[in-house]
Automatic annotation (TrEMBL):
NCBIfam families on file: PRK13259.1 (NF009749)
Main function: Could be involved in septation.
Keywords from the named record: Cell cycle, Cell division, Septation
Family statement: Belongs to the SpoVG family.
GO BP annotations listed: division septum assembly; sporulation resulting in formation of a cellular spore
Record flagged with keyword Chloroplast: no
UniProt-listed SUPFAM superfamilies: SpoVG-like
Name of this chain's protein: Putative septation protein SpoVG
Gene: spoVG
Region of interest (Disordered), residue spans: 80-146
Length: 146
């Protein structure tokens, strides 16, 4: 049997070990729903759909009969899970605003800022002339004159 489709729905709940629900289609004619990607003690693994029995145990509803098929299902589901995680990460990075700048523009902007902040020699000279022509009156002197 060939796996012809794997559909994965990520679970975004941080409080659970279940990371995704999965449906796997075989030979475009048979689908098994509710496989789960679980974050176990030894890493991620694929759990088969199961139900709880009256005595509290879980029994698989559907499962591979041999280890080769189990490994094949595990590999395909994990491949899709990792691709989905990579795609989500890329989408998050793409949605973050990025500012690209041209180094030449940066240098030009720096020069413009430096020019704006630099004292204008004519203005500085005019201020000195005004200060020389007009007597400086301090607050103390102004109060003494009253």
């Amino acid at each position: 049997m060939k796996i012809t489709d794997v559909r994965l729905r990520k679970v975004n709940n941080q409080d659970t070990r279940m990371k995704a629900l999965v449906s796997v289609t075989f030979d475009e004619s048979f689908v098994i729903h509710d496989l789960r990607v679980i974050d176990g003690n030894n890493g991620l693994f694929v759990a088969m759909p199961s139900k709880r029995t009256p005595d509290g145990e879980f029994r698989d509803i559907a499962h591979p009969i041999n280890s080769d098929m189990r490994q094949h299902v595990q590999e395909e589901v994990m491949r899709v899970y990792e691709e989905t995680a990579d795609a989500e990460e890329a989408a998050e990075q793409a949605s973050e605003p990025t500012v690209e700048s041209d180094p030449a523009e940066d240098e030009e902007t720096k020069e413009n800022i430096d020019e704006e902040n630099a004292p204008d020699s004519n203005t500085a000279q005019e201020e000195n002339v005004k200060n020389e022509d007009s007597p400086e009156v301090s607050e103390d002197t102004a109060e003494e004159n009253k």
